[in-house]
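My main concern about presentation is that the manuscript never shows what a single data entry looks like. The format is easy to grasp once an entry is in front of the reader. For illustration, here is how one protein appears when written out as sequence plus structure tokens:
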Amino acid sequence: MPMNRFTLALATIALGSLPALAQAPSGAANAPPASPTASSATSAPFITGLKAGMWRASKLDGVNVYNNANEKIGDISDVLFDQSGRIEAIVIGVGGFLGLGERDVAIPFDQIRWSNEPIRSVSSTPAPSGGGTGARLDTPDRSDVTGAIRSTTGDMAMRGYPDHAVINMTREQVRAAPQFKY
């Protein structure tokens, strides 16, 4: 898995440098250096912070993937980009137990829905002694969310990654999919 994280970090750095390369005019090598002015410093194309709707590619690694029946299919192990920086596919580690026997399946990016809200499934449990419905809301186990209650959807959108992904496939369809080879 360390190689996947390295590849993901390298892709993030490469994508961050593409806008800078595209900004250089074709005759920039022969042009005299521009003198810095206050107006040029304030008009530079820099982003100073994470905005709502922005995701950190490094945080997509490990995001859980579910199907429409709220069954966990696997988790994201890699993101595949084309040369222009467009995301082509998400690689999902499926099957196996504790990382053993897991295999990678690439799903086209446009086949994935993203959610900032945690998965909530209602399961019947014995009614608590104080009365009530006996319904329990379960949320997926996330190592980075140590049981903290998330306050609002806005807070979740600003954390830099979605809570989970959803694909329109059954477990059997994903397990039968061809393995992705690097």
